Structure formats: C-alpha cells, structure tokens
Amino acid sequence: MKQKHAAPVSVERLSVAYHKKPVLREITYASPEGELIGIIGPNGAGKSTFIKAVLGLLPLTGGTVHIYGQPYRATQQLIGYVPQRESVDWDFPTDVLDVVMMGRYGKLGWFKRPGKPDRDIAMACLDKVGMADFAKRQISQLSGGQQQRVFLARALAQDATIYFMDEPFAGVDAATEKAIIQVLQELRAHNKTVFVVHHDLQTVTDYFDSVILLNMRLIAAGPTKETFTVENLQKTYGGRLAILPRQFDLTMMG
Amino acid sequence: MNELWIILTGMLVASSCALLGCFLILRKMAMVGDAISHAVLPGIVVAFLVTGDRHSFPMLLGAAAFGLVTTLLIESLRKSGVQADAAISVTFTSLFSVGIILVSLFARQVDLDLDCVLYGEIIYVPWDTIIWNGLDWGPKAVWIVGTTLVLNALAILLFYKQLKLSAFDPAMAVALGIPVAFFHYLLMGLVSVTTVASFESVGAILVVAMLIVPAATAYLLTDRLSRMLLYSVLTGCLSAVTGYFLAGALDASVAGAMTVMAGVFFILALFLSPRHGIVTRWWQRMRLRRDLASHGE
C-alpha cells in the first residue's frame, strides 16, 4: 500500500470554495517525509481549509490529493487528525479515556467494540501527554490545555503515519505547549510526518523543519531555513505583518 | 389486563423514543426530531388511504420515506442559505399542514380523525388485537411499538461507537472513514419509523415530548453516554406509569398526563441532579461559604 518513492502528501492544483467564494486557489505541493511541517498564514488564509481538504472533510472544487501516491480513501488508516479544540462540545457525556479510545475506532471496523488492547494503547497515549491521572475525569472538567492534550493522545492512539493538527498550540498554557512539542519531536523521531497549523511566528524556526506559507494561494514551501524569510512573510501577510519574528529583529539590529 | 396493555404501550413508546432522543439531543438536533414527527403526517395519511390499515408495514416505510424527505429538505434549504431554524420550521409546518388538509379531506371516507392523529388514543389500544390461528396475540400497537424498540436498541447496540463518535466529533468520524452521512440518515429513519409507530398511542404532537424530555432529563443526571441511555429509558417508563395513574385520578387524557409526568421528572432533575442540579449547586455553594467562614474565624 505504501509506496516509498511517493511523497506522504501531494496535492495538485487543489482549489476549495465556500458558497462560491474561493478559499484556496490552485495549490500544488508535495511534502517531505518524517518532518514537522508548519502551516503558516494570516487569519482567513485557508490553513484549516487546506488540512480539511486533504483529509477529505470538504468537497474540492478542483485538483487532486494523494497520500503516498494513493487516493485518500485507500489510505485513511495512515492518517491521524487533531481538530481545533473548539470544534466539539466538551459537555458531551463521556470521560477522558473514552475520548482517547475513539482514536482506535478506525481500526475496529463496523461491529467490533474497543477491547482491552485498545484500552491499554489509550492509557499509554494518555501517559505520553502527561494525562494518565485524568483518565476517568469527565471531559467538561478539563482546562483548555488539558483538552488539547486529550485530543493529542487520541491522535496518537490512531497510530498513524501522517498527522494533521489544527492549531494545537492555540490558547494553551506553557506546560501543555512543552508537552505537545515533546510529543511532536518523538513522532518525528519515529519518521512520522506531522502537519501543524501554527500562529505564533516567534516559535516557527524552533519547532518546524519545513513550512508552508499560505494566503489563499501557496506563497512558498520548503525547509524553514530557506523559506521562512522576511520577504516571504511579507508576501504572505501583506501589510498585516505588524511585528516581525524576534530572530529577524536581531539580525537587523546585529 | 387492559390497564396493563395501555401502560405497557406507554412504556414501549417512551423507551424507543428516549433511546433515539439521547442522540438527537447530543447532536443538537432536538428540533429536527420535532420536525420529523410532524412532517410524517402526510406519509401516515397517504399510507393509510392506500392500505386502509393504521398498523401496517407499508405505513412504516412510507413514513420513514417522508422522514428522510424532511431531513433532505431541511438540509438543502440550509445549504441554499436559509437559516437553520427557519429551514426546519418552514419544512415541517408545510408538510404537517399538508397532512392536516389530507386528513380533513378524507376524514369522512376513512376511519382516521385529526384528534386521533394529534393526541393519540392510547385507551383504545387493548381492543385492536392481532387474531392469528384463532388465537388472540395481544394488541397490535404493542407489537408494532415493541418491534421499533427492538430495532432502535439493535441499531444502538451494533453501532454504538459510530453513533457516539458522529455525535461527539463528526469531523473526526469522517477522517476515520466512518460513513457519517449513513448514520445520520439511519438515525433520522429510525426517528421517522418510531414516530409513526407511536403516533396512535401518544399522538403526533406528544411523541416529540417522549423523544426529547426523558433524554434531556437523563442528560442532567449523568456524565456517561451509556448511563444516559439507561436513565432516559427509566424516566420515560416512569413517566408512562405515573402518567397513566395521574390520568385515572384526574379523569384526563392519558397521553397528556404521561407527558406532564415526563415534564415533572425533568424539573426534578433540573433542581436536584447530583452534579448539575440548581438546588444541589446552591447547597454546595452555601456549604463552601460556611466552611470558608468558619476557617476565617
């Protein structure tokens, strides 16, 4: 199923529109393997839309998506997804362990119920994000950072090869941010490819090996060192880039 | 014996509605349940005119089809830019009124009157029995509603994980390859069938109460979905039983009394639920305040 020579994710002339208003235009991109890839761009640039389009959650108005050279439907098992925290109702009557077990559902088929092996995997994943003590906690009693870690644990329980994370760092505390980045680095160490929609320009060079700069069109994509430049950022953000990331200030001052 | 049949019918209706109601509430679709239960009326009338029987398999199918048409109509209206609640209201009031016109047009020729459709005639249930091989097999309504209860329970048992995940996080469900649309229409189809199977006992209007109120009560009582399903069935059954005796005491409508009791249990849960209850929380606050005050001394 997995073809080594094909890129983990490749899209060709991908276009998406909401109510006839174009959100993404003709994106062509092929990702490297085993890297942490930041998806960067201003609000409304189509970052989440890009992820959702690749995941098949939105109808495409044009273009194609391939995962290791295969159409998405054939490769669902390879993909893990961390949606935005606000996308679900945290008052849903369930507990932390149960949410993480949901990551196993894709492997269970139509009728099988999650069993002890799935429970063990879920507990191990909770442990990885430092939430093992909260396994039996009702999800409405979690802080924002804890909710995010539960979602991350659920994605780990999917045991995927490619991960898509929609703003995992949005509104989390410093401890959670550290826990998340540790998990991301561990995923990379296992040669997983991880896409992360990211807002904080200050941390881009620390966190990501490659970046995708997006503003409805693909502005630039490639290794962070070469791609994450003042010139490209200005192209991406236009006049809206008020504060340049710290490292650029330093180089300019130095 | 007749009393028992009536109570049993009420309990079966309450249980099969409550199970589905839990998922409707969690998917924030309580209004869609309302819409479907009204919009199947033309389906009921047409199927009745064709078969001349209030309890028949074609009738259930016809109603299920109408329920799905309702869902499709609501969704296509919403997609074309109509606000969600407006789309729901427009769809079900139009279909319901078509049903009313059909009933009033054909009321003289056929044995189907508005009162029966709207408010149910649960007290007549024991007399409409199935006679087969010369034996009396009990009221038709019990068989029909019992079958839908088995159907609903079976669907939930088999597809518990899919229904749960599509309710909690539909995007994740799609990403995992779960056919979310299929389970959406399965749920809507079951709601339609259950509504039609129940309409004669509790009426097209009160079936909404049985769909939503016991499930809403159970939601207040627990933090686990499996227990919510169990509690919704229990409160539904309790409403049916107590409602029957309330109706007897007041000499009032049975379906109405059952619904009133469902409402009473909801209010009790709202005030006294162990975690979310208004009184419970007030009591906890008072105790906390007293503890703080005594520590301050």
Any chance you could write out the topology, listing elements then pairs?
The complex is a heterodimer of chains A (254) and B (297).
Chain A: E1 9-18, E2 21-30, E3 36-40, H1 47-55, E4 62-67, E5 70-71, E6 79-82, H2 96-101, H3 105-108, H4 116-128, H5 144-157, E7 162-165, H6 174-189, E8 193-197, H7 204-207, E9 210-215, E10 217-223, H8 224-227, H9 230-237, H10 246-253
Parallel strand pairs in A: 3-8, 3-9, 6-7, 7-8
Antiparallel strand pairs in A: 1-2, 1-4, 4-5, 9-10
Chain B: H1 2-26, H2 30-39, H3 41-51, H4 57-79, H5 84-106, H6 114-119, E1 129-132, E2 135-139, H7 140-158, H8 160-168, H9 170-175, H10 180-221, H11 225-250, H12 254-272, H13 278-296
Strand line-up across the major sheet of chain B: 1-2
State the low-pLDDT regions of chain B, or none.
Answer: none
Distance between termini of chain A?
51 Å
- The CATH topology of one domain in chain B is what? ABC transporter involved in vitamin B12 uptake, BtuC
Fourth-level CATH superfamily of one domain in chain B? ABC transporter involved in vitamin B12 uptake, BtuC
Specify the structural class of chain A: alpha/beta
Portion of residues within helices of chain A: 25-40%
Per CATH, the class of one domain in chain B reads Mainly Alpha
Beta strand % of chain B: under 5%
The SS-based structural class of chain B is: mainly alpha
H and E order of chain B:
HHHHHHEEHHHHHHH
